[in-house]
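User: Assemble these into one structure.

Assistant: Restating your components, then the assembled model:
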Amino acid sequence: MTAKRFWLPILLMVFGLLVVSCGSGNKEAATAAMKAAEESWNAAKGEVVKYIPDQAKGVEDAIKAAKENFDKGNFDAALASAKAIPDKVKQLAAAAAAKKAELAKSWEEMSGGLPKMLEAIKSRLDILSQSKKLPANLDKAKLEGAKGGYEEAAKMWEDAKAAFAGGNAADALAKGKTVKEKAVAVMTALGMQVPAAAAPAPVPAPPTAPTPKG
Amino acid sequence: MAEEEKKQGADAWDATQWHVVEKGETLSKISKKYYGDPNLYMKIFEANKDVLKNPDLIKIGQKLRIP
């Protein structure tokens, strides 16, 4: 047996072991990175899906892609995509927290103001119901319409409060916005002054055409 | 600063209805204007007891709450 014939199988075996050992190292690293990615996502997912749902899909797609690569044995690709996920999750968690704070602030403002409007409307409707005649700006049909509008707004405000108490700030604010619109309509129908914070934004004046020279 | 902003925000939501008394007005006339019924003037008097002592005595320029 020549020396070449003796060393060749040994070299091939060593090379094979090296390949297997490198592959196994990447597999372990990819497994750890995927575990870290999933753990970070599971911790933040609830708030992200709740407050910035449109941005949650990106992370879920990235985790899915990493898993697919892993299953195909592409450990390097799986490792690369999984490693980037925790940072992305961190950014989304911060964005979700900011959105949550923004919604809470809007709710605080709304829940401090809308009950005052509803209270003022109720007070006026109670007195108008005792009146033997109606003021010049109001007829019976308009008054009945205002009463119905108030009832709807008051009920929806209760729903909005329940939604906020249940942790659904976005739904609470959407309902609150409808309450505000209804309350403004009723106040206007009754000839009442609408609070500045609830008054519809003024429509900007159309741009004036330049005067032709000459 | 934040407290001031909060106060201004709260003021912007103030839904109190106001009427500034003009020459020749009485509580009955104001009641007729807002409620259609002059006999409901006591509702306005009750809401303004902090500034009115007598329903027959109101002053021009006085700012009254209209409940």
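The two ends of chain A are 110 Å apart (CA to CA).
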